[in-house]
Automatic annotation (TrEMBL):
<dbReference type="GO" id="GO:0016829">
    <property type="term" value="F:lyase activity"/>
</dbReference>
<keyword id="KW-0456">Lyase</keyword>
<protein>
    <submittedName>
        <fullName>Deoxyribodipyrimidine photolyase-related family protein</fullName>
    </submittedName>
</protein>
<dbReference type="InterPro" id="IPR036134">
    <property type="entry name" value="Crypto/Photolyase_FAD-like_sf"/>
</dbReference>
<dbReference type="InterPro" id="IPR014729">
    <property type="entry name" value="Rossmann-like_a/b/a_fold"/>
</dbReference>
<dbReference type="InterPro" id="IPR052551">
    <property type="entry name" value="UV-DNA_repair_photolyase"/>
</dbReference>
<dbReference type="Pfam" id="PF04244">
    <property type="entry name" value="DPRP"/>
</dbReference>
<dbReference type="InterPro" id="IPR007357">
    <property type="entry name" value="PhrB-like"/>
</dbReference>
Amino acid sequence: MKTLRLILGDQLSHAISSLKDCNPESDTILMCEVWDEATYVKHHKKKIAFLFSAMRHFAGELVQSGFRVCYTKLDDADNAGSFRGEIRRALAGELFDRIVVTFPGEYRVLKDMEAWAEDFGVAVDIRPDDRFLSSPEEFSAWAAGRKQLRMEFFYRDMRKRHAILMNGTDPVGGQWNYDPDNRQPPKDGIKIPKPFSVPPDEITRSCINLVAERFGDHFGDLEPFHYAVTRDDALKALDHFMTERLENFGTYQDAMLQGEPWMFHSHISFYLNCGLLLPHEVIIRAEEAYYNQIAPLNAVEGFIRQILGWREYVRGLYWLKMPDYARENYLGAQRALPWLYWSGETKMNCLRQCVMETKAHAYAHHIQRLMVLGNFALLAGLDPDEVNEWYLVVYADAYEWVEMPNVSGMILYADGGLLASKPYAASGAYINRMSNYCKNCSYKVAKKNGADACPFNYLYWDFFLRHADVFRTNPRLAHTYRTLGAMDDEKKDAVRADTKRFFRMLDQGERV
Ligand code: FAD
Ligand code: DLZ
Ligand code: SF4
């Protein structure tokens, strides 16, 4: 059967389901750089250059393996500009009996694919994306009948189902979770390894030039560019993490240091999410590192939980709840995203650091995304649509299936607590404990009120005062509301007055 096989930019895996029975004699593999995908949100320049280069390298490898590849570059004269346009063009040029494609990472793309059979009058086979360790159907069976969808229980099931870090039916070491040993503040003089780095080759260079020319008005720095764009190099990046960083991953998972964007994180989300690395192989490598005594259990379990737990869980939640999930706004947040998220122009040093590192690298580590950028978005009541769009634009690992649950569920509580049992809200004290940002800030973290007080301090209390109807009865917030109950009216008035002043300045575009 003569088949047209479409490979999307985040499907760069040789073992992908759409290639499983590919016949090099009769089939054509279609890959296309299209304007619609590069601009449906205005992705970070580095993200576009990374993905185009990875796509071009992957297409080259397919050709080397003897497959017939039809590759459309962005600037090709007859580029139709969209997946559907490129499919139509391919079908006009040659007769195919069917189209084969792997299940996509975004709902809008799935809806488009589902219409192709009728629109083009050809059979369309949308195959499961079996690179994930749990299918949307399995997740929905797990979720059925549960009032709360807590990641921790999903994760334990995944550990058992895939026999990862298991001793028969018990978790290795006797505990499912080693968080109490993790999440230490950064130690003075801590030495952080340099990140893995690959110099751009000719293909990457031409993608960088293309992006500079065509996407100059997009956010972010194109250079220096040091990411892997092939599976071979992505595997080297993984090796680098296993030998240099994994050992300290758990301990410093939540630590932040000025001028140190990479810390002890793995920096493999770009590669996992576009298919250069596979989650199962990464998990097995981490498990081996524990058994070979390269890294301790708290680090290995913590790392595996992110991939086998969180990554699979957010994808399950996305497909379970879309399309409604995109419209969730449980707290009625409506404030426009302030310009500082693009410019980094703020006196709040923590925010400035995280925005500027995001701009430079299309990367920030989890706790910067969650407890600085996300915490501010939650406390300031930023509109979920605008926050979702920002996160989708700025990170090179961002696709809607993973970005949206993290934003709407984890940081904004927009889903009403489906993902998080309480909002991830914190005052300046948390940021001060986990980083050295406050030492270089115009605001005083120890001050609770007044023009020079750390804004997180009063925004935190104002948030819980503002939303007392929603959160007062939450048992996990009992301590917070006990403290608020004991707060005198004068103090509450000061919190409200400071917040009002701060929001007025923010809304008027003044530097805060
Ligand atoms: P590490 O800290 O080394 O973790 C290892 C791997 O675990 C990551 O590569 C990633 O694949 C996985 N992982 C860790 N946490 C999560 C999580 N919460 N959800 C899903 N996978 C996770 N991750 C994305 O891949 N794409 C996104 O668009 C994205 N948006 C986010 C938005 C917000 C508001 C927050 C709070 C988190 C977001 N994350 C996202 C999750 C996480 O921050 C990144 O996966 C991580 O920072 C990537 O860096 P790393 O590879 O060094 O991760
Ligand atoms: C993110 C992205 C960008 C910037 N450009 C392309 C592209 O030109 N061609 C392509 O196949 N994929 C691209 N992607 C990734 C897609 O947006 C992604 O495959 C869908 O969102 C489905 O997850
Ligand atoms: Fe951020 Fe407040 Fe610390 Fe400044 S004082 S860096 S605003 S937490």
